[in-house]
Specification:
The protein is α/β, with parallel strands linked by helices and about 375 residues long. Helix content is about 30%, strand content about 25%. Helix 1 packs antiparallel against helix 3 and helix 5 packs across helix 10.
Length: about 375
């Protein structure tokens, strides 16, 4: 959704109605997660994807239909082995989509939401999926304000409280309420879609490998910062456009930088005077991934220095070193792929083994 919002914001500002399809539930080996979106706008322009190609043709027609009718629809697509030509997911999974028309009259908060996402201001959009409330009704919730309504004051109050809780976690999912926000009822189903700022990737050590890691980090959707104490190496022209470059001692920069459970920290400094103080700081703060480059001999020496610095075994167990998966990588770009692969595998609970050698779901639901 974040990637297609610039186009949606433009259509909305121009007053052009469009149909927006959003994945609101998945089961088994579905290819996209809740929140993935596709839209059909003026001139039948299509942006985004909800299944990687399996059902996009049917969704295209649905989006056109809801624009014409002005009414939202909830549709489920799954695999059909009875009719090889039936619309469905060949991967065997199932996805449920909310397809709704978007205009200034139907969704007066959409423009403000698009602007907030572009500015990195956290916002959660609550949308009615089913029940006595109007399907497709939306409520936009920020930390300090709300806009729109789901139909009743009680429902708005209950959903606002939950939306702010989801926003703090950057979480997306469904909630159930009574018609007036009753917590123990499930007459109304609401989809909470949170837009938190992009997660951060902090790359330390402005070497050729750092440029490649920064490039793939930006590709994966991270807000990337490269830090090095040496100004001759830490120059913006050596890194992709949009990557922040900071000249400062790495551990001092990290001390004044906020991290959370989504932050990725890649230590490529390859020098004890830089990476040991940096890792002492990194391993004591929240982060999704902390990896350090170096040979096995460098790793053993680094671990001894970190133990001498007072880190315990639980803290040291968080360190992924030598960094990356065993892909046989040689070039900076190949090493960057191996690092990215390890980050993705750790995030979703993947084994790193070839899929051809594994069984079960390709897209695990439990990271």
């Amino acid at each position: 959704m974040r990637e297609i919002l610039p186009a949606l914001g433009r259509w909305y500002a121009e007053g052009s109605p469009f149909g927006l399809a959003t994945v609101v539930a998945v089961s088994r080996s579905a290819p996209r997660d809740p929140g993935a979106s596709m839209a059909v706008g003026p001139g039948d322009e299509v942006v985004g994807s909800v299944s990687g190609g399996c059902v996009e043709g049917a969704v295209y027609e649905l989006a056109q239909e809801v624009v014409g009718s002005g009414e939202a629809r909830l549709e489920t697509f799954g695999y059909s082995d009875e009719d090889a030509f039936a619309v469905g997911l060949t991967c065997g999974g199932e996805i449920t989509l909310l397809v709704r028309p978007v205009t200034a009259d139907l969704d007066p908060s959409f423009g403000a939401v698009a602007e907030s996402v572009a500015a990195g201001r956290p916002v959660t959009v609550a949308t009615v999926l089913d029940g006595p409330a109007e399907r497709g009704a939306t409520l936009a919730v920020w930390a300090d304000e709300v806009s729109g309504t789901l139909g009743t004051t009680g429902l708005d109050v209950a959903v606002t409280a939950d939306a702010r809780g989801e926003l703090a976690l950057g979480a997306t999912g469904r909630r159930h309420y009574g018609p007036h926000g009753e917590r123990r009822e499930d007459a109304v189903t609401v989809f909470l879609h949170s837009f938190a700022p992009p997660p951060r990737m902090l790359v330390f050590g402005a070497i050729d490998y750092a440029a490649a890691v920064a490039r793939i980090g930006a590709f994966l959707g991270y807000r990337v910062t490269v830090c090095d104490a040496r100004p001759v190496f830490a120059t913006p022209k050596r890194f992709p456009q949009g990557v922040e470059v900071v000249v400062e001692w790495p551990h001092r920069f990290l001390q004044r930088t906020d991290t959370d459970e989504r932050t990725v920290i890649c230590v490529l400094t390859h020098d004890p005077k830089f990476d040991v103080p940096l890792l002492e700081e990194a391993l004591r703060r929240p982060a999704a991934y902390i990896g350090a480059m170096g040979s096995r001999r460098t790793h053993d020496d680094r671990m001894k220095r970190l133990r001498d610095g007072g880190l315990d075994e639980g803290e040291l167990a968080r360190l992924r070193s030598p960094v990356g998966l065993d892909l046989g990588a040689r070039t900076p770009e190949e090493v960057a792929v191996s690092v990215a692969a390890e980050i993705v595998a750790l995030r979703w609970g993947g084994s790193g083994a070839p899929l051809a050698a594994t069984n079960g779901e390709i897209h695990p639901r439990h990271p």
